[in-house]
Every structure is written in C-alpha cells, then in structure tokens.
Amino acid sequence: MKVINEYFKVKWVITSNYQYANHLIVKIFGRKMVGKVNHLLGISGGKDSAALAIYLHDKYPTLPVEYYFCDTGKELDDTYILIENIESYLGKKILKMQAAEESHLENPFDHFLSLYGGYLPSAQARWCTKKLKLEPFENVVVKDDLSISYVGIRNDENREGYISKKENIQSIFPFRKNIWSEDVIRSVLNNSNKHLLAEIALDTLKNGSIDIFTDLILKDVSEYYPQKRKLNDLLTVGIKEFNNIVFIYLKTTNLPLSYEDVFPLVNNEDGLNRNDIFDLLEKSGVGVPAYYKKVEFEVDEQKGYYSRSRSGCYFCFFQQKIEWVWLYEQHRKLFNKSLEYEKDGFAWMSDEKLTDLIKSERIRQIKLDYIKKQRNKHKNNLLNFLLTHLLKQKVSDVKRVLFNYL
User: Fold this and answer.
1) What is the C-alpha separation between 179 and 154, in angstroms, rounded?
2) Section 144-162 average pLDDT
3) For the chain, domain boundaries
4) pLDDT of res. 84
C-alpha cells in the first residue's frame, strides 16, 4: 500500500481492491453510503438520443437505465412515432412529461411564452430549452437523487453539451472516446492532483504503459501543454486505462459515480460518428425519424435535397433557412402556426421574417444557395479524403474514389 498526502491534505490509503478503497474513504471522510444511483437517458426525438438508447440497451444490458421524454407540445408527429418505436425495441415504457402541466394554456411552450411577454426564444435567450427540457428533468425526474445522465453527443462533434450545475447529477458521453464531462476532466487534470493520479496509476495499471502514463500525468498543464492535448495524449496511450484512473479518482469526490462500485463504461473504447448512428437506427428496426430523410426539390433545372437537421420544436430558431423552406413546402400547417407567433416585433430569425422568406423569388434563391453550398461541401470532403489517403499512400482507395466521383 502507498500513503498519499495529497488533494484532501490528509493520509489516504489506496489499494488495488476497489471495495476496500471505498470502505476506507467512507471511514476516513465520514461519507455515508447511499442506495440507488439513478441512470437516466433523455429521449429528445432526435437520432442521437434514440441511437444511444439502443446502444446502451444492447451493449450494457445490466445498466438499469430509465428513459424519459420532455414534450414541448410543439413536436413533429414523427417524434411521437419514434418514441413508440423505441419503446417497442426496449420493451419498456418511456416516462413522458410536460412542463407547466397545471397551466390553463394548451401547451407548455405557450405557457412560458406568455410569461416571457411574447419574447420568442433565440440563440441569445434559450429559455425554451431551460424551461421545457432542463428544469423538468432536474426538478421532476431527478429531484435530489444521485443521477447519471447519459448524453448522445457523438465522437465527431466538437461541443460539450448538457452539464448540470447540481452535484447530484453527472453527465456521461458513451459515444465519445472521452466519456467524461469537461468539469470532471478539468478536476482530474488539475496540476494539483497529478501526484494523486500518478499513485492511482501505479496501483491500478498492470501493463507496460505504466511509465508512459505516469510521465504524462506528472507533466503540468500549461500554455505550452494545454489540457486538451494532455487529455488526447492520455487517451491515445490507453482509453480503458485512463477511464479506470478517472473512476478511482472520482471516489475522492461526491459525484454520483463515486458511489458505484463498478461502472462498465470505463472499458468502453468506442467512438461513434454520424454514419454509425444512422446504421444503428436502421439495423435495429427503430428507423431514422422521417424528418431526417432527404426530399428532392428542383430549381432552375437543378436538383437538390433538403430535410430537417435537428429534432425538437418544428419552429426551432436554430433551423437553417432551407429548413424553413422545407417546413413551408412539406408541413404547411405547421409553418402557418409558426408564422402566427411572429408579431409585436418578434421574429424567429434576427435577419428575416417568415413572410419575406416564403416569397417565391426568395425561396428560389435559398434553394440555389443551398445547392451551391452542398456542392462545395462535397468537393471539400472529397479533397480532404484524397489528401488523407495520398499521404498514407493508399493508392487503391484514391483510385476508387476518383472513379466514383469524377
């Protein structure tokens, strides 16, 4: 056994026995053991959360995951079809809930819109997400219980996603090679914890990577060696090894995972990208939500394809202009309902009203711009692919791609 006088500034004994280590922490710090830690997954109606439900169900069947859906009252019908399909696949019901259930108004969105004086949500004021999704989750689903929230952000996405400010809620990202949230990584890789982490690594790692791990761990995060680079270096040496170090480190915190004896995702080395998500949905039989499927359109003798890129309210302000055109042409009634909200100087977009967007010449220009954008994106993707494989000297792959695209 090794004696560590770090982090808590008291002596803490670590052994290779997880349960004994946990027993010592309780004995020394007086932490009470709690009962159940909730494992929760919110179904948004989008592809990623749906695929995550399938992924966890299939790969980690022993995880006691509970599923919930916060209904905004302004969803596309395809969202409810997806929820039913997921329930059928999982063989269990998804908890369905709405914010402001006692309101005299028809649905929760209208309730909060009234409270906000008709001020429509925007990227600068996302009250819709806060009031219709996050608060129902934290106040109704979780309450004061210790809870692990599984988030479906993919490995090819450069964003962090939801992290609760409450200590009893911890976010985990199973689709990423780095399953930990930014707040956990920031704590783990804090320079003041490097000796503690090195001791944990020496006690837990059994392979030849111990020296590499300890060298990296003991290297300070700095302007010249930023946290992101240190994290990537550690994950490159060993994802499972790093995850196990983090899991033991969490025993020194009050985060929900500190109360779990085991956590199977520490051995997860998967990194799922966009194409993997679609494959999961199709192969499971749950299917891809209909609003993601491309619909052909034609303008000035040019063909293009449009669809919706996100789940959620049909009038989501994050929509691209081509998606508003899609809504206008594919779901006219819903578009007209969206139009009714634009009044008293409020609009869904900062630079254009829906009444202007649906003018025939404007629709034509939006479609032409979108076709041009997609072609440029296609060319750039092809160029990047070719350069990558040329550098790797995979001539056969380059020839195949050239044959298919040129």
Assistant:
1) 10
2) 90
3) 2-13+180-259, 38-177+272-282, 290-405
4) 96
Helix or strand holding residue 295 (H, E)? strand 295-299
The average confidence (pLDDT) of the chain is 87
- Multiple choice CATH, 38-177+272-282, 1.10.287.180, 3.40.50.620, 3.30.930.20, 3.40.50.720: 3.40.50.620
Report CA Rg, the chain.
25
Write out the two tokens for 312: 């959620």
Q: Give tens-digit pLDDT for 124-137.
A: 999 999 999 999 99
Token digits of residue 205: 């790692």
pLDDT at 20 over 50: no
Nearest Cα neighbor of 52 from 313, 281, 239, 266 is 281
Residue tagged 């030849």 (tokens): 208
Q: Which of 116, 73, 105 is nearest to 346 (CA)?
A: 116
**Bridging pattern class, strands 11-14 and 2-5:** antiparallel
Per-residue 3-state assignment (H helix, E strand, C coil) for 5-48: ECCCCCEEEECCCHHHHHHHHHHHHCCCCCCCCEEEEECCCCHH
* Pair of tokens at residue 346: 């409020």
The better pLDDT of the pair 388, 281 is held by: 281
Q: What is the DSSP letter of 180?
A: B
CA quadruple 213, 215, 221, 225: dihedral positive or negative?
A: negative
Q: What is the pLDDT of residues 202-258, one digit of tens each?
A: 888 877 678 888 999 999 999 999 999 999 999 999 999 999 999 999 999 999 999
Distance CA 169, CA 12 (A): 26
pTM of this prediction exceeds 0.70: yes
Question: How far is the first Cα of the chain from the last one, in angstroms, to the nearest whole number?
Answer: 64
Give the pLDDT score at 353: 96
The burial of 178, by beta-carbon neighbours within 10 Å (0-12 exposed, 13-18 middle, 19 or more buried), is given as buried
Per-residue DSSP letter, 297: E
